[in-house]
């Protein structure tokens, strides 16, 4: 079964590994290991924006991890979502909780509609769905709850510095009507594919807190596949 699936994927994807270019394999063993989440831990941009929740990442945004994320996000290599979801699930688990704990609500950071149309998919939501499946198989009750939405247009974040990103996103997100009911009793985890300056996750956390989501616990936390800025193999908690 795996063989025919790989052949089918080869019709729409490059036959080389998306991470390192190894021939005739969607993702080689070495690149899968890079996305295993073995070194998942806490990360914190410096300087960190006000309101940034505790963030855990599975890997650093470099090498094979960067290549796989870009192939999935920008080139529509959708089958890579499984490996990326595996990494995101590891980051979620690194933040606490496990089998037998309360339900986990994965809240993806939303993309602008124009970006979703241009890419043909919503990368963060697709990876979150794969991560939720992985967590459930590990005995952790998890589901994706897309309760955040953009309330106004924002500029493309690419090329913007930390301050400009914060200004661009300030007040841009809100929780959809009924969002509080949708995550009632669950541990809210904001999820995205990448953290750079932390401005996006800080704004998402602000919107979640403003709507009272996660108020029964310690508020939202966040998990991402990768982090920029010299991510260590096993990050130390400051």
Residue stretches low in confidence (pLDDT < 50, at least 5 long) are: 1-11, 232-238
What characterizes the major β-sheet? 6 strands, mixed
CATH architecture: 3-Layer(aba) Sandwich
Strand order of the largest sheet: 1-2-8-7-3-4
* Structural Rg: 17 Å
Overall pLDDT, averaged?
Answer: 83
**Number of extended strands:** 8
Number of helices: 9
Integer tally of domains:
1
Question: Which structural class fits the helix and strand makeup?
Answer: alpha/beta
- SSE order, as H and E? HHEEHHEHHEEHEHEHE
Strand content: 15-25%
How would you characterize the overall build of this protein?
With 238 residues, the protein is of the alpha/beta class. The protein has a single domain, classed as Rossmann fold (3-Layer(aba) Sandwich). The protein is 38% helix and 16% strand. The chain contains 9 helices and 8 strands. The protein has helices at 2-12, 29-34, 63-75, 81-94, 113-119, 123-137, 162-169, 179-182, 199-210, and strands at residues 41-43, 55-60, 104-108, 142-144, 148-150, 173-175, 187-195, 221-227. The strands form 2 sheets. It has a 6-stranded mixed sheet, with helices on both faces. It has a two-stranded antiparallel ribbon with strand order 5-6. Helix 4 (81-94) packs across helix 6 (123-137). The longest helix has 15 residues, at 123-137. It is globular and about 50 Å long. The model is unreliable at 1-11 and 232-238 (pLDDT under 50).
